[in-house]
Write a structure and sequence with these properties.
The complex is a heterodimer of chains A (535) and B (442).
Chain A lengths: L1 E4 L10 H8 L8 E3 L1 H4 L17 E4 L8 E4 L7 E5 L9 E3 L9 E7 L8 E8 L2 E7 L2 E4 L11 E9 L8 E6 L16 E4 L12 E3 L5 E7 L8 E6 L10 E4 L7 E2 L15 E5 L8 E5 L5 E5 L13 E3 L1 H4 L17 E7 L8 E6 L15 E5 L5 E3 L1 H4 L7 E7 L8 E6 L5 E5 L6 E8 L11 E6 L2 E6 L14 E6 L3 E7 L9 E4 L2 E6 L5 E4 L2
Parallel strand pairs in A: 30-36
Antiparallel strand pairs in A: 1-37, 2-29, 3-4, 4-5, 5-6, 7-8, 8-9, 8-11, 9-10, 11-12, 12-13, 13-14, 15-16, 16-17, 17-18, 19-20, 20-21, 21-22, 23-24, 24-25, 25-26, 27-28, 28-29, 30-33, 31-32, 31-34, 34-35, 36-37
Chain B lengths: L1 H16 L5 H6 L6 H17 L6 H20 L29 H17 L4 H19 L4 H22 L71 H14 L3 H9 L9 H17 L3 H29 L4 H8 L19 H17 L5 E3 L10 E3 L2 H14 L5 H19 L6
Antiparallel strand pairs in B: 1-2
Classes of the chains: A mainly beta (535), B mainly alpha (442).
Amino acid sequence: MRLVSFGLAVALVCVSIATAHAQQAAPVIPTLVDETAGTGIDSTFKGEWEYMVGGGAASFDCNGDLYPDVLLAGGEEPAKFYMNASTVGGPLKFTAAESGLELEHVTGAYPLDVDSDGIMDVALLRVGENVVMRGLGGCKFERANETWGFSGGDLWWTSLAATWEKGADWPTIAVGSYIDRAEEISPWGSCTDNWLLRPAAGERKFGAPVVLKPSYCPLSIMFTDWNRSGTPSLRVSNDREYYEGGQEQMWKIEPGKEPVLYKADEGWRPLRIWGMGIASYDLNFDGYLEYFLTSMADNKLQTLAAVPTEGSAAKPTYADVAYPKGVTAHRPYTGDDLKPSTAWHSEFQDMNNDGMVDLFIAKGNVWEMPDFAMKDPNNLLLQLPDGKFMEAGDKAGISHNGQSRGAALADFNLDGLVDLVVVNRNSPAQVWRNATAEAGNWLQVKLKQAGANPDAVGAWLEVRCNPQTMRREISVGGGHAGGQAGWSHFGVGSEAEVDIRVTWPDGTAGEWQRVAANAFYVVEKGKAAEAWVPR
Amino acid sequence: MRAFRHAMAALALLALSLGVTTGNAAEQSEGRPAPQEILRDWYYLMNELVRHTATYSPPVASRSFGYLGITAFEAAVGGSDKLVSLVGQVQGLEAVPAREAGAVYDETIIISAAMSDAIVFYFGNTGPTGQRAIKTAQRKWRERVVDGVADDVVARSETFGKAMAASIHEWSLTDGGAVVTNMGFPEKWELPTGDDKWVPTGPIRQQQLPLLPEWGTVRTFAMPSGATCPTPGNPAFSAEAGTPFYQEALEVYETGKTLTPEQLAIARFWSDDPMLSMTPPGHWVSIAMQVAERADLSLDDNVDLLARMGIGMSDAFVGCWHAKFTYNLLRPVTYIKKYIDPKWEPALNTPPFPEYPSGHSTVSGAMDAVMTHFFGDNYAFEDHTGSPDGRNPRMFKSFHEAAEEAGISRMYGGIHFRAAIVDGLTQGRCIAEYTNKLKTRK
């Protein structure tokens, strides 16, 4: 790794995005090349009923080269870890490696540096006992449940999120569980408990789990600072197939206090969907995140019903704008199977670097559900200058018809273009290299801070191109059973330079810094952004 | 079902505390189930599948309960000295399998075998968890019902039960309602235009065309056709304040603005949303199951009741849908937002199909008539259907009272005008008269 000081700079006006909004130009269609056969990735998420959900993908760097490595859930088969062997701009190459993460019954995985030692750890969701794996360096891991006081339970675990509560030097992890596996004839209404694992008082380990009741069979949860209060809440997307009396949920998780659900008198409105995944991004540049919730048939795109005026607090009331934005993705867009779709992992990434973030959705039948599409192509919805989206999955080359579940979108060969790994149920995972020739400029940023929470989970990363400011929240959670750590990617269109700023988890807002496009930057709290050049 | 059965256990305890006998059912639960017990077990499971099978909108659920009820009824007729077959009485049912003369059968095994196959015929499209539940029930419940029965009797009884289920299913395939795609929403449908016409009411892309617009042509069971019990029509459309139509809309609006906690509880109690509940037909089946269990009905009474309810509710939805797509009336939320208050929102989700008449009112009117015909007037009961979803049980003095409450709940919920409720209840009672005329007893 080579660090190059770039220094602070004054804000300048970027015009490309604003211009594009006015002109509604046709987007560049990304070119995604299926390189599965040559990548070395050969994992399959296998299993019967207890593995109809799950199948997460995690990407993170564990050997210090800052190329994202990959862990794929295997279900009844052991999870598989792949070390990234790609070179800049080259074909995607991975090497299966013994890491210690190769446990059976893994449904998903999320990377986070639990002990803040600068070496990535990994939390494994499983059918049975969850396991936290301590990173040892060199992509080796060891079980740490006992060392860290982590209760793994014995449930059908499906979702995970993590945060560092204000003042804590140890993370808080929330885990969501699904159906009581013992209920064979009457599994409906048998949702088992979700847990909140907070730091033990005065110790660098987890305390006893706190049950988050009521629990409604979530398939995705995430800590998110939805109201920009500086204290993330726990957003929970629940599968209505199995709960009784349930709905989508959001918990107030305030330091030192018991978790409390947002209620109707505060503005929370009931929504009942087959909640399967959460993706977030500030799509309308108002400083607040939109949330894309995957489901069956129509998917949801939630935006705050009312953006608070200066000095007032946001209410957790959301409007569904999926239809007007063109992201309902309710049925296959290609092929002859026009039954309703089933959506799982979703993620906002700018696949053509035009400065307008796009939306990937992994699709696939749950399991021989004849009323839903059996041939259900994955979506790639490109954002247009007017904020609406257009389908381009088939044109981009990713309209696979398998039972897709989890996915990871990351720049695996560090060429500035976001690549794609998709986990399929009962068929091999797939890997696509982004080879878009006409893509715009880009920027990738990795955050770093001293002490606890070294990867700055909970920070907000902003990239300013006047009149708009793009924002990402650095989070652990969401998606479908898998998450990513490492570089945050922004497409910046034709801009050669942009301004970036970090609001750190403690609320400290950094300075705006001017950086050149088409480069990687490591931003450490209190320091200037430093350019980094991959090997 | 697990939670519901817990609620039912609580109901049984309540009945005991009130001095109501639970009779043989409780005694037999220790060993081989009585035929009516295994029938109820299958019905509880099927009501779960109504909630958890994507095609099961209310009309589809009512149709299945029609065929399921007739399957159980015809399976039991040959073993009863009281029941009379429905062959020749319901449309298109010309023959059913007969038992071997003089041979020994077991009624519990017949009923269980018939339901074991029928559940696959009507819920074969359910999801993987439902499939798993069906297979487990087939295996475990068969073990219960064949225990201690001679092999030849088991084989003969199962063969007959399965043949009956297959025969009724084959008949069902010709009614025009067997194939439901895209969860009931058509790929193409030309929406009538006009200020009074239905338009989509929500942002769900799949629901921009109305649910099952041709359901009114599905073959009926007891009444001649979907057009048999017409409704008088909604008040003449007008956007003018003071006109009857405007006043109806104003009533919905003002009711919604001043909704009491009791009215909101009633709206939610009868909400019965597809995929979030067992739907209105399932709700009434649930009421029937609770009442039947509490009254310790015999097999004859159980199958008679379930057949009549299934027939009546299915015909009710065909008749209601026939009228809905005759009038194609807009929903209150559309009218009120346009002419009264653009910010108004109903308490319930507005269903994705035309307003007039109210489907819940039509089916509730029909079920009032069928159940009152069966049990008599002023039959009091407590309904625990919503307990698993956290709703308090409600006590009713009669089926009539329950139906009236179900009807008005749609105004409290802001999804129907009064005329749709009043005319729906009347239409349902008209339709049920054809069911009530069926001869099921010698």
